[in-house]
Amino acid sequence: MALTAVKGFNDILPGESGRWQHIEQTARRVFELNGFGEIRVPVLEKTELFCRSIGDTTDIVEKEMYTFVDKGENSVTLRPEGTAGVMRAFIEHKMYTQDPVAKLYYLGPMFRYERPQKGRYRQFHQIGAEITGVNDPLADAQVLNMLTSFFREIGLSEPTLQINSLGCPECRPAYRAALRSYLDERMEHLCEDCRRRFATNPLRTLDCKVPGCVAATAGAPSVLEHLCSGCDDHFASVCRYLKISSTPYSINARMVRGLDYYTRTTFEMVTGLLGSQSAVAAGGRYDGLISQLGGPAIPGIGFAMGVERIALLLNEQDFTTHPDLFIATMGEGERDTAFSLFDGLLKSGIRVEMDYEGKSLKSQMRRADKLKASYSLVIGENEVASGRATVKRMIDGRQTEAPLSVAGVQSIIRRSEG
Ligand code: HAM
Question: Computed over its alpha carbons, how large is the radius of gyration of the chain?
């Protein structure tokens, strides 16, 4: 039996990879304009890194990590997200000694053992960005504006930005206590998972999709009403900066995140087009993470976008590249001339295809159509003898005569492009 890929791990075939390149190139352009530089970190890290950063009681660490013991008896994990590894590198290379303000972006595969469905995979890809060293809410606003610019540049008006604040170690315990006492009275309506979360991570109950839990938490106290004055001011400034930059957003006080390192601002770009996989990008502030991982007390904020989900939203658009020209030949005798022109045009940067198999003219022209070539050119005895050929524009059949040379063909294709 033929072998297949592992469940939840996908191949990205040529038609699809054009869309991916478009996403990656747009992100690089927008992020680099904002002063971010690329960092590349390993896909495999010590398991402890993710336990200490994402949190021992999160779904990711409890259920979803690809963890194994390597041949040297070390527990290692395929990264389920990018922030932990990037911050590990920031600390390990003492990047903060040069400048605590680092603006970093990364892209690549992440791994989570989740139940695969549309928009949710076991190997998926993120493009993420992180700023360290800035407490000021200006950094929050820049990150959110950059994310919004990315979606505008890529041509998606959906998804929309939702923001929240989860407070800090000073004010969150009081909120957690208020939420617990609210939930305590409604315990019998909560699902089994939420009852367990009640003790470890009660905020997660706000995120539960089970109808009983949704109903039971409908009147739960709001995190925004329990912020300390520092967190309250910070959140108000983020909102003010977003208004100054005309960045559309809405506040969602029930938004909680699946990773424990967040403090203050959290956010998601949400779509209604992908069913339950509504978050296309997500992130927030993590002011305690760097010190928690053994580094100095340096704050941070960032986000990651899900490439598969963005690609699904872009599904309607065609990003495959098509040849500029298809060269057809009447017979065997013209193939040397055709190959010489083909080779010269490729070397001059024209995307050109030709018939490799000596097929009939009709089948060659069918192939030109199938490949969606912009132009076609037929070489027969007459063309070789006269040194001139007719270049046909496929979209409307318009024909233009040109010298049968790289420069001759190039002049027609380029003229039409300009
Ligand atoms: P996250 O919310 O776990 O955050 O993931 C960010 C994004 O990755 C999601 O919004 C989604 O688009 C995509 N994603 C997550 N899991 C899957 C999956 N199984 N299949 C397909 N796409 C998925 C983080 O990972 C944080 N590190 C973000 C961050 C960066 N926070 C601060 N800096």
Answer: 28
60-99 tens-digit pLDDT: 999 999 999 999 999 999 999 999 999 999 999 999 999 9
Which residue out of 58, 144, 266, 309 has the highest number of ligand 1 atoms within 8 Å of its CB and is therefore the one to mutate? Answer: 309
Compute, in angstroms, the gap from residue 305 CA to the centroid of ligand 1: 6
Query: Does the beta carbon of 126 lie inside 6 Å of ligand 1?
Result: yes
Residues 356-380 pLDDT 10s? 888 999 999 999 999 999 999 999 9
Confirm whether 291 is domain-assigned: yes
Could you tell me the pTM of the whole model? Answer: 0.88
Query: What is the extent of the structural domain holding 383?
Result: 325-417
Do 274 and 344 fall within a single domain?
no
> Where would I find the beta strands (DSSP E) of 311-363?
325-329, 352-354
Burial class (CB in 10 A: 0-12, 13-18, 19+), 59: middle
> Residues 67, 70, 72, 76: is their CA dihedral positive or negative?
negative
Environment class of 301 (CB within 10 Å of its CB; exposed 0-12, middle 13-18, buried 19+): buried
